[in-house]
Amino acid sequence: MTDQLPSPRGADVGRRIGVGLMYGLWKPRVLGAWRVLTTGPVILAVNHSHVIDGPMVMGVAPRPTHFLIKKEAFIGPLDPFLTGIGQLKVDRDTTDRTAITRALGVLESGGVLGIFPEGTRGEGDFASLRAGLAYFAVRSGAPIVPVAVLGSSDRRGRLIKGLPPLRSRVDVVFGEPFEAGDGSGRRTRTALDEATGRIQKQLAAHLENARRLTGR
User: Fold this and answer.
1) Total structural domains in the chain?
2) At 30, which CATH number?
């Protein structure tokens, strides 16, 4: 499996690029980054309402992160670039076994996997979760760290829909890590459904706390 793993060094390069880009175009305020474990596998579960959510978290997270990104983003020169910085292409319309294997490989090697559990960009409120996050968490045993990305709701100054106004403040709030499983090690459909329910409550609570903390 190791020859299929995305490059940790590439993800570190991506992190450096993200730092420069995000701090150059916006004003990130990062809260709770110390909650991300310094070693071992971690899953970052990120809400998704802005185009920049992935690059923002990739840039400000304390560790290099491999995000599962929809295959539609891997177009033209972005394909080799995203692959080169250690990101994972996933086909959302099927059971993408290659992406699953590589994502599990990231966790098995002690890396950080980034997931948008809502599956696609929307309200960013964690209201509708896919089962993928529960599967990776239960299968790997990796703790989940919820991440809330909160940008300005002011639509003035936006160049692109879904993009915070340039030079506006964007808050990135990392929450307390938690385990998704019930300790039984079960991976049945029922166990994953139960885990998804637990995850949704934790993520929704973190988002509420993050909004209260930041005033967003």
Assistant:
1) 1
2) 3.40.1130.10
